[in-house]
Amino acid sequence: MKNQIPNLLTMSRIFVIPALIASFYINGPVGNWIGFALFAFAGVTDFFDGYLARSMNVVSPLGRFLDPIADKLLVAAALMMMVAFERISGLAVLPAVIIMCREIMVSGLREHLAEIKVPLPVTVLAKWKTTAQILAIGFLLVGDASPDLIPSILIGDILLWIAGIVTVQTGYIYLRTGLKHLD
Fold it and tell me: Domain residues of the chain, as ranges?
């Protein structure tokens, strides 16, 4: 059973997505905070599934497969819902689109490179991108429900642009690395 704990945590991130989507249909600040809490819960499970898998030495093929998919599905669902509900609007939609396009591109590139046994390891810059992206989504999920002293929307928009800019950089790095192996 202990072998399955990291996989169960990964699966929980996928199962949180419908609840996160539903939170957008709850009127008022409660919906914002529920969405944020669900997203934060998913972030905590992301940390612990990786930590437990490594510390218990139970990294599995299923976990390696599901972990990045769970992350991408959660981020894509949050971004799409925030655009649909105009929590991300105007020019701020651009970094959201860039983030989603880069994720699809890198996933496809990784899949192809895996077939020819070429690894595409995560870069330190990509980890910074993910951090900015997750923080941006958290602030934007809270949105105008935040206390007046905390400009959540402004902070979220700035972090989303930072994530978008770093996304372009990391996408280029991965593409440049991957193209060397594409004939």
Answer: 1-70, 86-183
